[in-house]
Every structure is written in structure tokens, then in C-alpha cells.
């Protein structure tokens, strides 16, 4: 019998934290952070990390478990979260994954094994760099040239993918570039858990407004000092330093950018990331979407009803 796992996903500033606390209380849950930056100690403001008071309401895991000089890969998350799911389920409680790092959730919920060995872990940042590079090359070179590149390194994959299928061509090239393994040789993805993926979203103008306000609140709360401390500990190439909300600060510290320009850069990067998150969760998971900001009472009722029905349904073997 597969263990049941609830995942709450979506962009920043849509209410994931508040919902996770409410659902954990209602459905006897324990919360596992699925955020790639909240694992780091002292990175509290820029990651919108849950407060100590909120942690006291419900058990939380995978927060503050790494120093900023350490790395933490999707493979590390998969192993740690898998162990916690077994422990939480063994207590008769519901494991709840909360966070927006898509690659982490894919590694766990879909048994995604891209480069997932202890010798060559692939970080979410590395995957994003390769993905952006390949997208730029597709734009510059065109579909036929990119498909021909795939045909050279993985003819079996190319034979089954039309040259104009951008998503699948780039995905196969991404696997090759990150792991050195042919996409056609990758084992099929499996579903080790009976997962319910709950996505939060809202109208795009409101989302962007809330993101902009969230960044301003972070700056008012001392984000600049937190980022300055971070760059005193690590160089800009460290995994922790590449997170949105931190990587935009060095020009300001070097007096090459104003505070206003830095805030705008963080807001812009955050909005772009939110858009990528929504696209990823739509394509990678059978996500159940809800808007708690537009009609909170009816949306909450729909969520409670859907989860109650899911929890009563026997999981597949």
C-alpha cells in the first residue's frame, strides 16, 4: 500500500503557509519543507521562512538543516523527505510537503532520478541554468538544429520525438547535458506515493502585486543585512547565494546599483520565477488548483471536501 502524501505547491505570496497550518491541524498532519533555500540556517527573511511561533503549532522538518556553505540537491531532498514520510505515516499522521521547488517534488513524488547519485547530484540551480541555456539556443538556432543535436547524442530518443516538439527535444537534451546519460535509456518514472498535489494560484495581476509587496516587506524587515551577511560567508557561486532575493544584492553592495533598482530586480526575478513555477506544476503533476484569495470560504470548502474524499480512498498497492 502506497503512503499518502499531500503536497501544497504554487508561487510565493499565495497563502501556502497559512493553508498548510490549517490543513495540518484539521487532518493531523506534519509538515516537510519542499523549498530549496529554507534548508539553510540564517536565511529567514529572503526565504519567507515560517516563524518559530508557527512552527510551534505543527511539527516542521527540513528547515535550518544546512550551513550556507553547504549544498543540498534534489537527491538529498528525496532521501530525507522519503525517510520523514515513512516516520510520519508510521505515527498515523499525514505527511504534508510545502514548497515551490519543482525539481525537489518531482524527485520525490515521481521517483525522478535525474543525476541522482551520491557522486553526481544535480541541483535545482544547475538544472535551471541548463534549461535556460537550451531555451536560448533553441531560439537562436531553431528546431531542426536542436533536434539534429539530439539525434547525434541520442538517436533512439530523436527517432521518437518530432523536431518541432520543443518541450520533449529540450528535455532529452537537458538529461544528456546534466548527466551524460541518454534520455532513451532513462528508467520510466514511477509514483512511489499516493500523492494529492494541491496548487494555489490567483489572478495574475493580483499575484504580481502581492509578490511586489512581499519583496518590499522583506526589505523593510532587513533583507539587505541578511544578504550582506550571506555574501560575507560564501562567494556568489555558492548554492545558497544564487537564490532569488539574495543574488540581486552584490551590485548594490559594490555601489553599482541603487536600492530601488535592487528591489525592482528582486521583484522582477520573483515574478518570472512564479510564472515558471506555475508552468512546471501544470505540466509535471496532476495538480488540483484552488484560488483562496478570490473566494476564500468556497475554495476552503472545496479543498476540505477533496482532501476528505482522497483520504478515505484506499491507496493503490
TrEMBL record:
- The site annotation (Interaction with substrate tRNA) covers 101, 131
Q: Name one GO molecular function term.
A: tRNA dimethylallyltransferase activity
Give me the residues that bind ATP, please: 10-17
Binding-site list for substrate: 12-17
**Key words of the record:** ATP-binding, Magnesium, Nucleotide-binding, Transferase, tRNA processing
**Where do the record's region annotations for Interaction with substrate tRNA lie?**
35-38, 167-171
Query: Catalytic activity annotated for this protein?
Result: adenosine(37) in tRNA + dimethylallyl diphosphate = N(6)-dimethylallyladenosine(37) in tRNA + diphosphate
Its domain of life reads: Bacteria
User: Recorded E.C. number(s)?
Assistant: 2.5.1.75
The prosthetic group or cofactor this protein requires is:
Mg(2+)
InterPro entries, per database record: Dimethylallyltransferase, IPT, P-loop_NTPase
- Matches recorded under Gene3D superfamilies: 1.10.20.140, P-loop containing nucleotide triphosphate hydrolases
Record note on quaternary structure:
Monomer.
Q: What does it do?
A: Catalyzes the transfer of a dimethylallyl group onto the adenine at position 37 in tRNAs that read codons beginning with uridine, leading to the formation of N6-(dimethylallyl)adenosine (i(6)A).
Name the protein family. Answer: Belongs to the IPP transferase family.
Name this polypeptide is given:
tRNA dimethylallyltransferase
Q: What is the species of this protein?
A: Lapidilactobacillus achengensis
